Predict the 3D structure of the following.
Amino acid sequence: MEHVCAALSPLAPCLCGWMTCCDSRVLWHGDDDDTPDDAIALTIDDVPRNGTKIADVLQMMLLLRQRRARATFFVFFDQLNPMSSDSAEFNLLVNTFVSEVKSGGHEVGLHFPGRWGQQMSLTELRWRTEQSLQIAHRRFNLPIRYVRMPGGFSTPAQVTLLESYGLKVVNGTAYPGDADVCQCLSAMVIGRCAARLADGDGRIAILHDDKRLIAKLASFLAQLQLQGKRAVTLSDLFGPPRMTPTQAVRATDKPMETHAFFLPF
């Protein structure tokens, strides 16, 4: 099955209706002429998930360090913003994750709750984006360059809005279905499948955080090494996107506008 999926890549996600977006501005892979021959962008969604322990974060970061791999984590920043009422353990978890991201040469991108991103209104998307950028920049001093919509689905209007904040919308072709249709497969098979789907220059691999993330990641990195590839961040693959002065100011200094509160779904 893994070899069949790899043969269909990069058409497999489109054919199966996963993560499709009819907009040429959405990034699916790197430019074959400009990306290093052995570079694969590793992206991991939903980190840290509800229930993540500090030990989980440290184990994941140790594995990446041992394999000399770097990753882009797409996170829910409303969950990465501890309040005074949160436990000391949760605050330590968040600080540990951010510290490990910075020291390990990794990066973070924006992600939002939900399954069907194209259903999110522009008002809600603007509110979530501004809230997330404020938390990322002002609380954690984290540069944000990329965003992944829920399920990988977006509309041209949403892409235009996100690009006005200097963000590039990113999907990927090396997705093993670990968040939906292939959850029944073993962690080893899922990780190996993702690596085989990524067996091409400039591919973007997608994994999701869950209780089996370490096992999936270990399998992915081992198979990637056998293929003579290395895992890098999106910025390593693409280089920093160009941002106009107006976009830079908007992304970092604009006060957050007051909009109606939207509950995650």
In short: Residues 3-19, 255-265 have pLDDT under 50 and may be disordered.
